[in-house]
Amino acid sequence: MWQISKDFDFCYGHRIHSQNLEKSLSCGAEPKCLRLHGHNGTIKVTLEGYKLDKRGFVLDFVELNWFKKFVDDYLDHRFIIDKNDPMISYILTNNIGSHIHDGNIIWIDHPEKFTTYSVKEGVNLGTINQLVESFVIVDFVPTSENFSKWLYNIVDNKMKQFEIKTSSVQFFETPKSNSLYRE
């Protein structure tokens, strides 16, 4: 069996509104991730195959450009926030809640428009006028663990179309802190 991996870097902001530290494990540290903050993240996508295609590849690395485009267009330099974060009403306009769709990302492209991107279909679902900018609203708390699973599902849904196995997605929140998801 072969495994191939490719890394994708991006900058993003987020906050963990549910952070509550166990004092005996954290040595009394304060829950810093409750604050709005940013990271330079890295996503490591690992694919596997028991045979190579007629070109000699599991998958040519350049054929992961679709994922690079997704990261660059939808995640890079965006603020990623849980739709249930109590702070969302302070960050976004009061009426956005009616436009949040379960299972979808809502991406705010520029002040007059936002676009939903469905993880399931992987297609643009349309636009709605709104006065907010550069937010990705997700239906999970944006922890490293949840990011790695969410990104795994995006990669796996695409790779299944080409009968390529997604081995894992590893999400590096920092160079020293990461999570890995595999089924």
Largest β sheet strand count, sense and barrel closure = 9 strands, mixed
Assigned CATH superfamily: 6-pyruvoyl tetrahydropterin synthase/QueD
- Strand order, sheet with most strands: 6-5-4-7-3-1-2-8-9
Question: What order do the helices and strands follow?
Answer: EHEHEHEEEEHEE
Radius of gyration from the alpha-carbon trace, in angstroms: 18 Å
Note the beta-strand portion.
35-45%
Helical amount:
10-25%
CATH top-level class: Alpha Beta
Give the integer mean of the pLDDT values: 80
The overall number of domains is 1
Topology:
Blueprint: E1 2-14, H1 23-26, E2 37-49, H2 65-75, E3 78-82, H3 88-91, E4 104-110, E5 113-118, E6 124-128, E7 135-138, H4 144-160, E8 165-174, E9 177-181
Parallel strand pairs: 1-3, 3-7
Antiparallel strand pairs: 1-2, 2-8, 4-5, 4-7, 5-6, 8-9
Q: Can you offer a commentary on this structure?
A:
With 183 residues, the protein is an alpha+beta fold. The chain has one domain (2-181): Tetrahydropterin Synthase, Chain A (2-Layer Sandwich), CATH 3.30.479. Helix content is 20%, strand content 37%. The protein is built from four helices and nine strands. The protein has helices at residues 23-26, 65-75, 88-91, 144-160; strands spanning 2-14, 37-49, 78-82, 104-110, 113-118, 124-128, 135-138, 165-174, 177-181. It has a nine-stranded mixed sheet with strand order 6-5-4-7-3-1-2-8-9. A hairpin with a 2-residue loop joins β4 and β5. The longest helix is centred in the C-terminal third of the chain and has 17 residues, at 144-160. The radius of gyration is 18 Å and the shape is elongated. The two termini are 17 Å apart.
